[in-house]
Design goal:
alpha+beta, about 25% helix, elongated, about 30% strand, about 270 residues, 7-stranded mixed β-sheet, 8 helices, 5-stranded antiparallel β-sheet
């Protein structure tokens, strides 16, 4: 996974110190999903411009608000990413393990770090500067993978939105997440044959392979909104938006509402959200 909302470096953002670290074996960079399919020659060129930094538990790797001049790929260990409000309130927190890439967006744009990264379990990062990042993003498919992973992360952090049903109560909308896969599969089995027929053109069982496809969103060309009665409650409806491969301005929408909540106007709200 990739987390770009991270913070200033233990290196102090000083790219000149990068030469003092140990070198990086190009093949070990495949630990990151971004680089798993990269050409060996491209990885060797990339690794020649990176270094390995080792961290102990409690070490601060990046600090919120500092200038971003480097990015890192977690090689091993466990790190925590934390974003705080101006008053010190933690807005979100997550863990990063091997393969996670941190600091990409800020290093690319020159913006300040947006979160703090701390080492929880002793580990290592392969570190590079802005020019190295440019080389990495030039490797075929890396930019596209970065966009998909980054979009998924934004979806995971999105807060539910309340929508009024005009006299029929209210519902809450949030992005559908891969972690909703099992709940989606269960909901499909529990709706009536008629509802399944309207959605899948068949009233029979829906295979696990189809459920996997429905849960495997890239949040760029394939996105879905989930509806619930509570901010983080069980799903009662979903709208799926899939872009046309030949014309990204055109998309196919598919809506499904659980039987008990049909006729309340939820479908219209979901279509409007799509």
């Amino acid at each position: 996974m990739i987390d770009d909302n991270v913070v200033a470096a233990r290196l102090g953002g000083d790219a000149s110190r990068m030469a003092s670290g140990r070198g990086v074996d190009g093949e070990t960079l495949r630990v990151s999903p971004l680089l798993d399919g990269a050409d060996a020659f491209a990885l060797e060129n990339l690794s020649a411009r990176m270094r390995i930094d080792e961290f102990e538990p409690g070490d601060r790797v990046y600090r919120q608000g500092d200038a971003a001049e480097t990015f890192g790929i977690v090689m091993d260990g466990l790190f925590t990413v934390e974003n705080r409000h101006d008053q010190g309130v933690v807005l979100w927190e997550r863990s990063l393990g091997p393969g996670a890439v941190v600091g990409v967006t800020e290093t690319r744009s020159g913006a300040d770090r947006m979160a703090t990264v701390t080492c929880r379990v002793g580990g290592r990062m392969a570190t590079g500067d802005a020019e190295t990042l440019t080389d990495m993003l030039a490797i075929p498919d890396v930019s596209g993978r970065l966009m998909r992973i980054r979009s998924e992360q934004l979806a995971q952090r999105a807060e539910p939105i309340c929508a009024d049903l005009t006299g029929a109560g209210e519902i809450w909308l949030r992005p559908f997440l891969p972690s909703d896969r099992d709940e989606l599969g269960q909901a499909i089995t529990q709706v009536s044959d008629r509802t399944r027929r309207l959605r899948f053109f068949s009233g029979g069982p829906v295979s696990g392979r189809v459920v996997d496809y429905l849960a495997n969103l890239d949040y760029v060309n394939h996105f879905a909104w989930a509806a619930s009665q509570e901010p983080h409650g069980a799903g009662i409806g979903i709208v799926r938006i899939i872009r046309d491969k030949n014309d990204p301005a055109v998309a196919e929408l598919a809506v499904a509402i659980t039987d008990d909540h049909q006729g309340r106007g939820i479908g219209a709200v979901l279509v409007g959200a799509g």
